[in-house]
Amino acid sequence: MPCPTPLFHVRTSEIHGVGLFAALPLQANTRLGAYEGRSMSPAEVEATDWESHLTYLFGLSDGTVIDGAQGGNALRHLNHSCSPNCEAVEAWALDGTLRLDIITLCDVRAGEELCLDYALTIDTTHAPEAYPCACSSVECRGTMAASA
Fold first, then answer.
1. I want to staple 68 with a disulfide (CB 3.0 to 4.6 A). Which of 18, 42, 72, 135 is the partner?
2. In this structure, are residues 52 and 40 in contact, taking their beta carbons and an 8 Å threshold?
3. Residue 39: which residues within 8 A CB-CB, separation 6 or more?
4. 54-67: per-residue pLDDT in tens?
5. pLDDT tens digits along 77-116
6. What is the per-residue DSSP string for the chain?
7. pLDDT band per the 50, 70, 90 thresholds, residue 129
């Protein structure tokens, strides 16, 4: 059976490092896949020294965190944009665990970078400016932190 055409590929990004790019035109509401990685409990997250790690973290509503740096897939390369064309949506997997699907918000052209709004929840001791945004969109708020 032939391999299906990939929906995206990883390459150098003008936003940051490497990014994910549409391999072909994608319609709004296209599921790109599930964000994969090691599932961590809140206690495991708290006990980890994140200063020495590259992070690809997603917090879920049940308190668990998915660390895409450990056993993750290519979806971990989604960069931030204040004008995202993708979103992360929680869904229940057949095994009863919570998963994170990446879905396109709008039609996406082939070659266009696929991005999420990270909407980071930051510690109150840090200023949003400590998390600068490089998306260059006309709606750029200057930070990857969530809007106030």
1. 72
2. no
3. 64, 65, 66, 97
4. 678 898 999 999 99
5. 999 999 999 999 999 989 888 999 999 999 999 999 999 9
6. -PPPPPSEEEEE-SSSSEEEEESS-B-TT-EEEE--SEEE-HHHHHHS-GGGS---EEE-TTS-EEETTTT--GGGGPEE-SS-SEEEEEEE-TTS-EEEEEEESS-B-TTPEEEE---B---TTS-GGGSB-----TT--SBSBPP-
7. confident
